[in-house]
Amino acid sequence: MALGSPELTTEALDGFDNARLREELDKAKAELFNLRFQAATGQIENTGRIKIVKRDVARIMTVLRERDLGIREEVEASEEDIKDKKKSRK
């Protein structure tokens, strides 16, 4: 059984372009910071979530690094993703 978020499996990450991977990495790092802050103040409800998010961060960083090294193929952003980004900027 693999730990991690079900939407961030390696198969799912292979379908993301580099910009989307960096967005997901930023989200995961922000969540990890908040979870660590909650743990430090004694307000965390699910301590196992820290381990899951740490693995998500590592998985995303691994995919990005493998693409840099040429081990994995890079994915181009689809036209729908580009349109969605333009809409969200307005």
From TrEMBL:
Q: Which UniProt keywords apply?
A: Ribonucleoprotein, Ribosomal protein
The superkingdom listed in its UniProt entry is Bacteria
Listed InterPro entries: Ribosomal_protein_uL29, Ribosomal_uL29, Ribosomal_uL29_CS, Ribosomal_uL29_sf
Q: GO: which molecular function terms?
A: structural constituent of ribosome
Q: Which PROSITE patterns match?
A: RIBOSOMAL_L29
Q: Which Gene3D superfamilies match?
A: 1.10.287.310
CDD domains xref list = Ribosomal_L29_HIP (cd00427)
Any single GO BP term: translation
Q: From the record, what ranges are coiled-coil?
A: none
Q: Which GO terms describe its cellular component?
A: cytosolic large ribosomal subunit
Q: Which family does it belong to?
A: Belongs to the universal ribosomal protein uL29 family.
NCBIfam families assigned to the protein according to its UniProt record, in alphabetical order: L29 (TIGR00012)
- What PANTHER family is this protein classified in? 60S RIBOSOMAL PROTEIN L35/50S RIBOSOMAL PROTEIN L29, LARGE RIBOSOMAL SUBUNIT PROTEIN UL29C
What name does this protein carry?
Large ribosomal subunit protein uL29
Lineage of the species this protein comes from? Bacteria, Bacillati, Actinomycetota, Actinomycetes, Micrococcales
